[in-house]
Amino acid sequence: MNDTTTGSEICLRKNTSSAGRLVGAGFATIVLAFSVCGLATWARNGYAEVVAALVGLVIGVLMLRETTFGADELWTIALDIIVVEKTRPFGQPNVRFIRREEISGTRINRDGTNPTCFRLALQLTSGERLISPPFPEVTHVRETAARIAEQLSALDIDSPVNPLDATNLEMRIGEPVRKAPGTFKRVIILIIAGLCTIFYAFKFWNGLPLATAEIIFVSIVAIIFLLSFRYAHTSVGAFWIVRHGEVRAERLTRDGKPIAETITGSDVATIGLERDSRAEEERYVVRIDLLSGQKFLSQGIGTEAETQAVSDEIARRLGIAPERVRR
User: Fold this and answer.
1) Residue environment code for 164-190, b if the CB has 16+ CB neighbours within 10 A, otherwise e
2) What is the pLDDT of residue 1?
3) N or C: which end of the chain has fewer CB within 10 A?
4) Low-confidence residues of the chain, pLDDT below 50?
């Protein structure tokens, strides 16, 4: 997904790579295989298993349909017209022309699940509503919105709230750190640890011996619980305020006390991206390594391309030389 500009045109593109389609199709095939096997043995299964197999079958078919026949989309926004082109792996491209007079309203939508994803929403006079592919540059959303408004003449498009926009005096990455999430994690850890000890407390109370495997298991789990409890506050992450010439990183200590540190360009050894280990989906963070050996990680931002745009803007604001930017 990227944008291409030809003259004054603005292009928004959504592409699914061949590798992505193959992975999706493979996963859908696995879901279908398990579902078919479940239905094949329906006589020995209860109603719950049959319903689960049917649901899995429907999900597998829908996934296979989307990965195999899902359309790539290209929006070309020119003067007083938008060209929407959809291309499927099997079939002819579907091209649609939307003229300025057909548009009754426009706005920029921010994805509720991904705060770094912005899309153009069109309301047509026919009552139809269209949503564009995502904006490619999360740090230039206001600029892109202004260019779209210019291309579509008198249309007013409100600039969305975007804490990562390069036009902001301060770029804000993540949410302000609070003690409450860390305290909540500690309470949950204590509850789980208490529940896990019931079985072993029962055996100890009744004088029953613990097997060697149980002793090893208890020791490992106890270490995990202790480390999780100790670092519950620091696992929340840091809140970055990026200004011209400095980055203010606010975080919590292990005791839950807020601290703030200031990073300048002369302090930085390298800046680059790192996979967000706290997120299940594919998200990235900005990593700053200082000359002192200290490492700073931002909160999760978005895809690799979106996070790279934020990293480049931070490097520009701090005046970091290109050779110190890891890609």
Assistant:
1) bbbeeeebebbeebeeebbeebbeebe
2) 40
3) C
4) 1-6, 43
